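Design job #97: recover the sequence.
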């Protein structure tokens, strides 16, 4: 990088918490690419989606010493972390928001629940490109290899000069197989597949005999045809899905307007 080229400022967050091995591996892998700021949740917030904490104040703490020296953590959600960074904590908006590496896949409908994806989305809502990284299998097996692959994808995105236009920034959801770095050279640009319904709720008894419930596991893949994230992973490839925030069903909007839903 030329000494006259401004290094990008990269904000990194996650949903597994600031102590997660996936976050540390990601930070170490992309640290050479620019100025790094880490703001992550204090505790695991998997499944938090895009939730903001509005019922209590939030506190920011800095890690002093050790391999996470300088990391900031917040007693809130992944979205809280990025939102606070964008709305006053940082002196200027970063050039890129990177989230992960999550412990476990985020494919198909998972993206609607994922705190990992939500952190990247929050950056996009402020006009900053975002990438969410997840590793397919839990347990952090070969996380350093996944982080090296994440580094390469960040380099590719930065080289493509992603859009910084308000409301139209690039948003990528990336899923990485638990494989050696040598086996992670195949990338596929994909669409989201979808799953069967979630597994049944798990009912248990509390120590007092009252019924308690655990949310069941995610459903198995339903649409894993060629071109989907599920199919790419089945083929041993990294899945890279470009996403957008517009939830409007445009074809249905036009059909409803044509069928008399507009009145007055």
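Job complete. Output follows.
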């Amino acid at each position: 990088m030329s000494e006259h080229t401004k290094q990008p400022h990269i904000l990194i967050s996650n949903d597994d918490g600031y102590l997660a091995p996936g976050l540390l591996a990601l930070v170490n892998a992309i640290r050479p690419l620019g100025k790094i700021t880490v703001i992550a949740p204090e505790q695991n917030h998997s499944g938090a989606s895009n939730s903001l904490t509005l019922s209590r104040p939030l506190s920011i703490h800095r890690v002093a010493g050790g391999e996470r020296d300088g990391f900031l953590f917040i007693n809130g959600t992944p979205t809280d972390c990025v939102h606070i960074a964008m709305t006053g904590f940082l002196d200027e908006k970063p050039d890129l928001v990177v989230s992960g590496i999550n412990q476990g896949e985020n494919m198909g409908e998972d993206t609607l629940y994922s705190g990992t994806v939500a952190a990247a989305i929050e950056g996009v809502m402020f006009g900053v490109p975002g990438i969410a990284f997840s590793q397919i299998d839990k347990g952090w097996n070969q996380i350093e290899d996944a982080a090296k692959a994440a580094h390469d994808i960040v380099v590719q995105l930065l080289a493509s000069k992603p859009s910084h236009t308000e409301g139209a920034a690039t948003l990528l959801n990336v899923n990485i197989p638990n494989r050696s770095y040598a086996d992670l050279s195949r990338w596929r640009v994909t669409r989201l597949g979808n799953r069967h319904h979630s597994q049944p709720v798990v009912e248990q008894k509390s120590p007092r005999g009252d019924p308690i419930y655990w949310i069941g596991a995610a459903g198995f893949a339903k649409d894993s045809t060629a071109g989907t994230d599920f199919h790419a992973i089945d083929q041993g490839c990294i899945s890279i899905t470009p996403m957008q925030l517009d939830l409007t069903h445009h074809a249905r909007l036009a059909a409803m307007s044509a069928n008399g839903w507009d009145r007055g």
